Amino acid sequence: xxxxxxxxxxxxxxxxxxxxxxxxxxxxxxxxxxxxxxxxxxxxxxxxxxxxxxxxxxxxxxxxxxxxxxxxxxxxxxxxxxxxxxxxxxxxxxxxxxxxxxxxxxxxxxxxxxxxxxxxxxxxxxxxxxxxxxxxxxx
Length: 139
What we know:
By secondary structure, the chain is mainly alpha-helical. The protein has a single domain (5-136), classed as Sufe protein. Chain: A (Alpha-Beta Complex), CATH 3.90.1010.10. The chain is built from six helices and two strands, in the order H-H-E-E-H-H-H-H. The chain has helices spanning 5-13, 18-30, 77-90, 95-100, 103-109, 118-136; strands at residues 53-60, 67-74.
């Protein structure tokens, strides 16, 4: 079930400092369902990430309109946490909702914009780009 940016901001506000927030992000990543090894192939790699990131999407046509769900994994703990945040924001939404959701706003409201290295920010943007590209093919 997709969560709102407000829900995530509320979760982040429970923590007093960024060390606790980073631990929370890493914990989110540890809770991601495992991605099958056979999906960790070159075609599923997200370009623009310093770490290795793989992402796949599935269409759920049992709903009207159809929704998209994403599965992803990384070899870096903090990136897995960022993936978890993106999947909470985007999975289970319609392609139209996905294209309209502003991940930059989420990054800013969560305070991540100023607490991620430029490389991590670029990777975050690359993952969002991949998600939006998948959605745009189905709008």
